[in-house]
Amino acid sequence: MRRSLAAAAVAIAVAALFLGPLRRRPVRQLPAGVIELHSEIAVDADSELRGAPSGTLLHLAPDFNGRAAIVVRGDNVTLRDFSIDGNRAALEIRAGLPPSNTSFAEFTRANGVFAEGVTGLAIERLRCRNIAGFAVLVSRARSVDIRRVTVADSGSRNPLGRNNSTGGILLEEGTADFRVIECDLSNIRGNGIWTHSLYTSARNARGAIAFNHFREIGRDAIQAGHVTALSVTGNSGSRIGYPFDEVDIENLATPVAIDTAGNVDASSYDGNRFQEIDGKCIDLDGFHDGEVRANQCINRHGPASYRYGHYGITMNNANPDMRSRNIRLVDNLIDGTLYGGIFVIGSGHTIARNRLLRLDASHCNENAARFGCYYGPADPEILEAGIYLARGAEHPSPARHNLIQDNRITGFKMQSRCILAAPGVDMRSNTIIDNVCRDR
After folding, report:
1. Of all residues in the chain, what percent carry a pLDDT higher than 90?
2. Residue 217 CB-half CA count within 13 A
């Protein structure tokens, strides 16, 4: 843990170099009490907007028409010390995700704070609740510092009543030099904190998501989407993938404590701790040339409590521009999974000193009828392995030239199912040494 905290300190210090000090600017103080908003409040460049010392609440009226309660229109802006009630009950629009060529900035309205194309944005000690869109939506920005923001009871649903990803804090479309620090998010229908860019857009870059806390998140607590040089450090949370009925299962949005999408490299997931995850602990879809170290995910209940339970850690390669390679996956704890421990594709990985405990709680494939966990004749053992060496995922990428060493693996029949390979994958093409495997 000492090493994890040191890594976090370095990441935050690096981010601070990019952000730099904001210049002194005029302060605009909001009136005390409740302010009913029928349209958005614009904040121009080189200014600070703050709440009254006795408290300011911005409440979106039922006829509110705007992108957000607060729209930032210029550079070098600070927002601090006020509350936003988004009146979700009146303003929620049941809609799915935007089309693949449309950003959330173009698509989602009734947000808490919206900023696009700005440089030098600081948001501190905002309290957001009942937001229909995103609590904070930042697009195509640079030098963004979001700190100690509280978000509760936010996000909308799609026509089927499932989450549509909204509710949390989103940085998108090539936002760079950012940090989201010490925020608290609870009862969020969609993702908690995430980065996102269209495939045709620049990746997000040089950021830190650190020391945030999450409770009752319907999709992903954290998603690193299409980003380079991101540090995800010291975050914690519980009940990821709840409530059951709002999980967007029709669109295969399995909840994840720390998710990955797009092309993600030069990044680290370090020292994060989660418990009660109805889904995956860490999904590495698009992650390469980075480190996943000293993270913990613990599930304490029986398999019936995890309707969408899955593997502990999975690799994937949906983005055609990346290759799953050179991941250091070390010193992690996975305790209690519905299926296996680590799903491996690609090459050059070091998978070492991980503790993979109480795996395969569903007893695949013996309980296949009850838990639907028989994958099929092409990969009959895929869900029951401690570590599974696969042929590929979205694209072919056989597991080979990887080091798998000093892992402790326990669970249902793990003595014999500890490390398995897919048909056509030669285990001898990997170095597998000094792993300890036990049934319990």
Report:
1. 90
2. 37
